Q: What sequence folds into this?
């Protein structure tokens, strides 16, 4: 009996799925072309995982590094940073005949799913299933975090989203939303469909750290509160919500949230 058990355990050990070891570029900062999109890769010493870092609306890939302590946090936690040049995207999955704002030849979320992640896996064995993968974003990049997790289920161990919007139908007059999905009055189903994280809360299965400044005049803080409530109703262990008085929609707030967000990653 004991011998049979040992054989069985040996079988499990030998046949358990194993993720590929990290094989990143040399330590430091490098820039690579991914499907025509510039992407910075920051590698600390002795990396143990990877963070996909998404910028806000029309922020370039260097914005996080120039305006926050993200490199310091990456070094402290030994996490690689992947920073693509997303610029003007709402991390949409589709374009339509009425779409007047096209980020690239492919929509933002489609690019991440079909091009960026596979390319990082192929080149560097990064963002592989079973590795310590995280995703972080601010403003439109916050909704990008939600969309990336939803479009790539089980790939990320945790996420962190600052000052994001997650239910665009609550802002029907927002011009950039209409530029992607067409006017809300004519196409409400698009605004409430696949590109709407709040409407997909029932699919959620990844721990996430949500933060928003209560003095934000760009994205209403109730977007984060509402999304957090939806996820908490599904599973309280999946979400932490942090609403901070005295902070607006800027790097003063976003930088203040990096340390707790990276600690959140370390717990997952």
A:
């Amino acid at each position: 009996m004991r011998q049979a058990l040992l054989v069985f355990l040996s079988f499990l050990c030998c046949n358990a799925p194993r993720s590929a070891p990290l094989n990143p570029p040399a330590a430091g900062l490098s820039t690579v072309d991914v499907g025509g999109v510039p992407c910075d890769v920051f590698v600390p010493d002795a990396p143990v995982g990877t963070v996909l870092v998404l910028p806000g609306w029309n922020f370039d890939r260097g914005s996080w590094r120039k305006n926050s302590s993200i490199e310091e946090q990456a070094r402290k936690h030994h996490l690689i940073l992947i920073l693509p040049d997303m610029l003007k995207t709402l991390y949409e999955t589709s374009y339509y005949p009425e779409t007047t704002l096209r980020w690239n030849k492919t929509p933002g979320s489609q690019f991440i799913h079909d091009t960026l992640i596979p390319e990082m896996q192929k080149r560097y064995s990064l963002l592989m299933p079973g590795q310590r993968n995280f995703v972080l974003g601010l403003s439109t990049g916050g909704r990008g975090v939600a969309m990336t997790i939803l479009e790539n289920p089980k790939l990320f161990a945790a996420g962190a989203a600052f000052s994001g919007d997650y239910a665009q139908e609550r802002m029907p007059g927002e011009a950039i939303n209409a530029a992607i999905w067409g006017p809300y009055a004519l196409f409400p189903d698009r605004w409430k469909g696949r590109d709407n994280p709040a409407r997909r809360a029932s699919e959620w299965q990844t721990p996430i750290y949500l933060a928003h400044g209560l003095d934000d005049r760009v994205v209403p803080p109730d977007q984060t509160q509402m999304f957090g409530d939806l996820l908490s109703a599904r599973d309280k262990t999946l979400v932490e919500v942090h609403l901070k008085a005295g902070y607006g929609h800027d790097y003063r707030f976003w930088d203040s949230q990096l340390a707790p967000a990276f600690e959140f990653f370390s717990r997952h």
Q: What stands out?
A: Residues 4-17 have pLDDT under 50 and may be disordered. The beta strands are 28-34, 37-43, 49-54, 79-84, 133-138, 158-162, 208-213, 239-244.
